[in-house]
Structure formats: structure tokens, C-alpha cells
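User: Fold this; C-alpha cells only.

Assistant: Input:
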Amino acid sequence: MTQPVDYQSKTTARHSLWWRLVKSRITWFFFVPAVILHLGAYVAVSSSKTLRDMLFSDDQPARQVNLSDREIQQAVEDLIKLNRNHFALSLQQLDEFRVRLDAAQGNRFKALRLEDAERKQKIADGVWPTADAPDKTAKYFDRIDIDPPAVQKMPMVDVEAEDFTRLYNLHQVFEGDLAKLFERYHAIELSASLTQPLPLSKSLEVTRLDVPKRRPLPEGFLSKPIRTQAELDKFKRDLKDLYLETRDIVNSAARWVEMAESRTTSFSPSALFGTQVNIIPAPQPYYGHYLNPRLFRQVEIKQLLTPKVALGTRMGKGELSSQAQWMSLDRWYYIGPFAHPARNGGGGGAGARTMESLQHKYPPESGIDLDATYRGRDNRELRWKYRAVGLNELLSVPAEKGLKIMPYTVDNEAYAVWYFYTEMWSDEERTVVTSFASDDFGMCWVNGQLVYQSPPDTQPWVPFAQQGFRNIKLRKGFNRVLFKLENWTGSTGFSVIMMTYEDRDLIKAIEQDQRGQ
């Protein structure tokens, strides 16, 4: 029996054959040129290093910015205003140091006079052998000009109107007056500590400070017109050098005050002056001009002078004030003090302070257990404690109280090491620009990766310093942050401050800056 013919199936088959033929020709039409093109590209990339670097290297040339005459002049005006403001603030710091140093040396002298008066009375009453109670005030402290020298009281400075040159030169005046106060303090301690009689006037002869000669303003610094990018770059370098000089003066004064208030009696010449500015750059409470000279951007002067910092440990939409540009991590658990590895025999004199000793590992570096206890300095039992700062501290004067994280006073000692631990939350994976700062040495790990290590030299706490910026990769969810803090002498503390939004240009500039170091 003859089967019926399915014309629809035959038609479909013919169409199917026709389409396969057409499709094969189309495929060959596009496939052959594509293969040739890819082979050519492979040969070109393989033979050209320049092309490979351009396509695959992250180390691209820095973005070139062509500025108009008006933009250059505006940049000069903003930079002068910015640094004038810095100078005014540092002079107010120096004035505060003058008051504290004056009080330290004056109170020490008064205490010694009172002590000797009591000894005199005991001698007169016959209850104290004369040989064991020398009258230092009467015999050895031939009172000279012990009153503080004439120091210019720093008034509230009109940042807009004050002469730039005068603001800069006043730093040197303050340094000289503060040096005299510290010489008197040092002389008092020297005269009081010696077993052989030494009048105060003689002590002053051996406690003179060799105050360094400071950099003068370059000739024609503010009078020469600036018209080109090269001239603007030189102007910025000169400004940076001048600012480093003023910070050097402030750092020296801070060390003198710390030594006087802590009754330090032995002095290393290298510790008396802030001579390590090449390692410890000046604080830069803004981003832009100085963060990387290759990255120039126009920003509002108010944003440069007053960065808005919020406190917290959560980053994401709705977590912080919309005005906040930075977030300072404010809640930590800490443990310490551990014995400083550079101390000879634990309680002896200071030993060699080397990078090897600073990187000595203590138990928290091997894993975080907030219920664990360890043996610390002087064989004390150490437990984790909770430490946080609040909004009241951020709004206080000085505002550093809201940013600087320190051990409780009972745990705050010289020649010691602490560990601080927190967990911060991010609503997504992101790269954040982060400012690290510590007094003295500091190291930081994020999710187990070492992301920051300060120079080994002793240094003050300086947030937003150029050498403290790092790019940190955060995971979505919780991120573990461990900070190791070392204190050699004086005050101590640290901060971790994160930018609240992603700035690709700034992240790129920091990456290039880190490669160049």
C-alpha cells in the first residue's frame, strides 16, 4: 500500500537543507576574517611591549591636567589661604605648650623649695640629721631669672587678614622662647639630682639647647607671579617645605612638654627636636593638592580646612550622615600592656629599638580570642577590655579626643605594646581610602592581611598625613581589623579613618604613590 506523501515534511526538509547551507556560508564569511584578525592581534601584542603595557598594566601614566591661567591663580590663592590657616592653628598649639611648659618648670621649682623648707624645719627641730638633708634651695639654687621669659601671647588670628610671612616667622620666635623654658626645667632637674652642689646658674650653662636654624621664606616667594604648571609645582614644593618646618617646631615643643610633665631626667639629643620630618610628614587634613602632586583637583576651600568626620563601624547607604566624608572607627577591644621587646630584662633600661624588636609577635597576632587571658608586662594577667569614644569627645577641644584611640589611663605606660581589635561592616565589596596614624609605632591587619606599618622611628600621632594613606579592600559584611600599638615614651594612641565614598582618581593616585616608595 502506497504511503501518503507528506508534502509539508518535504518542504520543511528542503528549507532546512537550504538554511544549513546558507548558515554555513555566513559562518565561514565571518569566521575566517575573525581568525585572521585575532592571529594578527596576537602577533602584535606578543611583539610589542608598549602595547602589552598599555593593555594589561595597571601602572598607567599619571593623568595630565592642563590648567588655565585663572585656575592656576585660584590654586595659588587657595594654597596660601590653606597654609595660613595651618600656621595660625600651629601657633595656637605652641601657645598652649608655652603655658604647660611654664607650669611644669614653675611647679617643679616650687615643689623643691617647699621640700627644702620642710627639711629646714626638721633640722631646726633636731629630727633630721643635717648631713642627710642638704638645703638645696638655699645653697645650690642661687635664684636667677627663673620667671618665664617674655613670650608673645598668641591672640585669635584673623586667617583672612594676617600677614603670611609674619605667621611663619612667629614660629621661630615661639621656638626660642619655649627652648628657654625647657632649659630652665632641665637645669632645675639637673641641680636637684646631682649629689654634688651645683648652682642653677651653672646647670643652665650645660643645658643650653642648640636650636636649629630654620628655613627662611624663599626670595620673592609671594611677589613673583605664577603663570605655568611648572611654577605652580615649585610653589607647592616650597609651601610644603615651609609647612614641614613649622610642624618640626611644633613636634619639638610637644616633646619638651611631654618630658617636663613626665619628669624625664635623661635626654637623647635626637629626642629633643622634631628632626625626622622626612619620615614623619606634616599632617594634611584634606585630600588633593599634597596627597599626590600628580593628581590636581579643584575642591572647595572649606572642604580642605574642615573635613567632616563621623564616628562609627558601619559603612553603607544610610549608615552615616550624608555630610560625612570620613568615618573614624570608634569602638574597640584592647589588651595590654605587653612588655616592650626592646627593654633589657623587662624592667631595665631601654635597649635597641629596631624594626625586628617592633615586629615581635605577641599572642593576639596568632588569633583573636576575646575570652583569653595572657601574661603581660611585669607578669600581670591581661584581659580584653572594651574602649570606645563618643560624639561628645569628637566635639570637644581639642577634637582629637574623638579620633585618637588610647588605652585607659591605668594601662597607659611607656615602653609597652597593646593590641586593639574591632569588626566593621560594609554593605558591599569596596575599596576605601584609609588614613592610619599612630604614636609611636603601629601595624594594622584587615581580614588577616597586613595593610599598614608605620616607620620604626618614634613619632607623634598625625592623622591625614601623606605617608599614612592606604587603599583597603573591604568584604561585603563584617571585616576584622587588628591594630598593634607601641609606645616608647610620652603619650600614645592611634586612629583608623576611612573615606565614606569611592574616589577612583584618588585610589589610583595612592596606588601609584605606594609603588614609587
